[in-house]
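Morning F.,

Quick status update on the modeling queue. The single chain you submitted on Monday has been processed. Sequence for confirmation:
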Amino acid sequence: MQSFVNVRSMSRICAIVVLLILVVAVPASAITPLTIDSVTPSTTSIVNGGTVIITIAGTCGAQITQASFTMWTPQNVGPGTTLQTTTNGNQWTGQAEYTFSPNAPSGQYKIGRINVQDAAGNYVSKDFIPEVIINVQNSVSAQPPTIDSVTPSTTSIVNGGTVIITIAGTCGAQITQASFTMWTPQNVGPGTTLQTTTNGNRWTGQASYTFAPDAPSGQYKIGRINVQDAAGNYVSKDFIPQVIINVQNSVPAQPPTIDTVTPSTTSVVNGGNVIITIAGTCGAQITQASFTMWTPQNVGPGTTLQTTTNGNRWTGQAEYTFSPNAPSGQYKIGRINVQDAAGNYVSKDFIPQVVINVQNSGQSTPTSTATQTASPTTIPFTTPYPTQTASTQIATIYIRNNVFVPQELTVPPGTGITWINNDATIHAIKTTGTHAGMFRSGDLVKGSQFGFTFGDEGTFEIIDTYSNAICVIIVKKGALLIGNPTVQTSAITTVPTSLPTSLQTTEPTSSPTAASTTVQTTAITTAPPTGQTTILTIAPTPNYDAKIAALESQLAVQNQKIEEQGNILDKITSFLRNIFGWK
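Structure tokens below.
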């Protein structure tokens, strides 16, 4: 009798053990969120300079691969600071030293945006609440630097050559970095770093700029100059009068083409490496090439190709690693960028699209905390211009080496501008000057994009809140796109009624007043109604409520089965009692 009576209890115990095994078998990475829980400075008061150790910690479901924060100064936001991280089980910690110059501006310095990414590709970007403030009190604040002269060693180049660019000015503290950009006849080139020396209250910077013998002929203009000192002062300006170098080359090179994109495999199961090979034609040696990989959740960071040039053919290869706990789904090779020694630059999405199918059994996913929701990278795209209905033009600005490329665009009203971060460091952009507050992007990791349509005429200054680089958008009726080689024009043939299911849309609070327009670009699929902003989320936070509900549903089913088994055992026990006369 006793053995039969205990059968039901043992059955339930066994079922509970099975459930516990099932719960334990669920990968920790699937239930441990990526969070930012604490921000601790070693001190909150600095007098006449000093160093603060910043410690940031939280939970994680996979190893942390990169983490950083920004420090808001009394004047503006400073550059991002990288954290040295350690991962211990489901806990991570990051530390960094932040040094305050003795002549930095006095006031409140605030730890701003914090960015964390793990090996599974999860990304969290948030401002920590409550705000962490460090009070700085310095006796002497330095005067910001000036840019007084720009002198090229020559203003004429024939069939290639090198020019020494010398830039000088005054300063109140040592100059820590300086750079300039060179506007080519076709577009703006990458930023060039100056080697600087500081002597008292004067600074000088020099750099060699080489013109390839097959570079395009025409006028090359020294554009935006950026200077920063040890006190944190930052100056960014175009030097007036403009400095021009005339280049006359006999044979300009043909721009490169992108003809083939070949992955070593199109199927990856539980992690692995894929060799991506991209090839095409060229008129000069290829100096740099890269591509981005679109993940099922969002676009990943750019990947650099190792290139070889053989005659008029070029080939680039790169190894792309898929983590065994990366999200499953289709990964697509997106924007490809190629530049040659002649200064030609090509940026395009390869057609037909190359897709790699990834199937992983264990995936690590981020989630929100009780006090702060993890912010995805978003693309606000606003169309305030009501009469732009015939066509929509798209232009691209790249962020490379902490400068905008190009730094100035002249466009007609209704043109959509896409900013793409090609740097390994994080950037974020916003309008400044007379149009401050018009828009502000979230943090842009490498490969991320942000788009905005300029409807009204005017001159708009855009600042990178990390590097303080500035670009200028000039919008005027009848203008042709100037200063950018990658422009797309899309005739408007349909009025979309909804966004694609792959993009989540936050509806505006007011009713639409005009029809939406359609543009073709990798960053932006549709433009919203006139005067309204649509947020296109490229890294949506997973729905953990649904996952928890699914687990609860499974537990309920198991409980029901246990009850059914218990009822059967009760009936068997009752039957045996009746037969044997058990009490």
